[in-house]
Amino acid sequence: MIPEEYSFDPLSVMICDDSALMRNLVSRIIADAPGMEVIGKAANGKMLLDMLDNGTKPDVIVLDIEMPVMTGVEFLKERKNRKLKIPVIILSSIATQGAAVTMECLELGASDFITKPGGSTSVEIGSVGEELVEKIASYGGIFGRRNGKKLPFTDYFLQMLKMHSAEKFVAKQKGSAILPSTEGYSSLKSSSPFSSSTSSAETKERPSFMPLFSNQKKEPAVITPLRDGGPIKIIAIGISTGGPNALRDVFKMIDPHLKQPILVVQHMPAGFTKEFAESLNKICPLTVSEAKDEDKIEGGHIYIAPGDYHIYVEQRPLGNVIRLSQEPQRNGHRPSADVLFESVAKVYKNNALGVIMTGMGRDGAHELAEMRKQGAWTLGQDEESSIVYGMPKVGWELGGVQKQVALKDMADEISSMARNHA
To answer: Does 363 qualify as catalytic in the annotation?
Structure first.
């Protein structure tokens, strides 16, 4: 038996897409992620609403945009009218050509989006499988736990997906029969580090797996800054999974009289950041735009790093400027928060505020610690309000975060620090 404290509920998913092939391909990805199960499939938004009305209770919905009878946008409008809280992840081929539609979906309450590679019925959908599992685990996990389910954290699902994929690869190399992907969840216990053949005593000897079941934090490293914090002349933000809506929450409440510039790295594909910046500009009292190479950095202006480009600051005699580059990815990302924070630490030293927010992995954490070492002020989003407590967690553990702040308080905290240290 798996010890009771390590057993958990399946994370339930509904898929809505007018393509039967796509519904089956996405179902296969989810079934191959131990701990997840598909509990319903719909060919359009109306069918999806009917299934929800009839008692189907998913933890997360994967939604296409272009569908007959009721589109994804129309479904999101009805979801908003009915005050449904189930998180929705957009998975659509229209997204690349229709970034404005994708941003509309986010404005209507969708949690995040992924673009289908190669078109609406492409078997290349597997290339975004890990990203899809990450976002399902992140948004569905939070919703499920808030509604009484016992679910592991996102890292666990990704770890088990990799283990399951490795087992299938080895079986294929040996010419063995591969379990049908629909058995993904039922095979969880046999592939889990806490399998039925593992005793409670043996389980307790495996502390390395504990973070897969809880976001345990290490005691933070102690950083002694080289200099005291000075006047804040620039604000730099790094953010990833959960970022689009988190930034909407922050920027619509930011101080309209803020004097400092804000530079933002949001992990987002090329082709979306211009529309994303424009959507933020509609709700933010400050000017928001996609950053351009050689932009002069102006106070009271928010600059969003363009997709597929690193953003960094460069010191110039007549005023500092933004530079863009397509140097190799860092931490698996371009843009990378580490690249931005590194340049801010070098140019501004103790005259900066660094903020690290919700996101998978560790991008930004190392160089936020360097900012702190140089004397900069720093903030990190807290665990409870983060969709994924990854980047801010590592930033905290490395000693780079002075203070952890809930999302609902982040705008006020940034604004007050900018005023108090102007």
So the answer is: yes
- Average pLDDT over the chain reads 88
346 by DSSP, 3-state: which? helix
Tell me whether residue 228 is exposed, middle or buried, using C-beta atoms within 10 angstroms of its C-beta: 0 to 12, 13 to 18, 19 or more.
exposed
Alpha-carbon distance of 385 to 303, in angstroms, equals 24
Cis omega before residue 335 (within 30°)?
Answer: yes
The 10s digit of each residue's pLDDT in 216-236 is 667 899 999 999 999 999 999
For the record, the structure tokens of 227 come out as 């200099």
Query: Which pTM was predicted?
Result: 0.87
The residue from 17, 64, 363, 382 that is catalytic is 363
From 267, 301, 310, 333, the catalytic residue? 267
Q: What's the residue count for the chain?
A: 422
3-state secondary structure of 116: coil
Which one is catalytic: 92, 111, 192, 240?
Answer: 240
- Under DSSP, the state recorded for 153 is -
4 confidence band (pLDDT: 50, 70, 90) = low
Distance CA 352, CA 367 (A): 13
pLDDT at 235: 98
Both tokens assigned to 268: 């987002």
Between CA 378 and CA 236 the distance in angstroms is: 9
Is 267 a residue of the active site? Answer: yes
Task: Give which of 72, 67, 77 is closest to 89, Cα–Cα.
Answer: 72
3-state secondary structure of 333: strand
C-alpha angle 328-332-333 in degrees, rounded to nearest 5: 75
Max Cα–Cα distance, the chain, nearest Å: 69
- The amino acid occupying position 38 is V
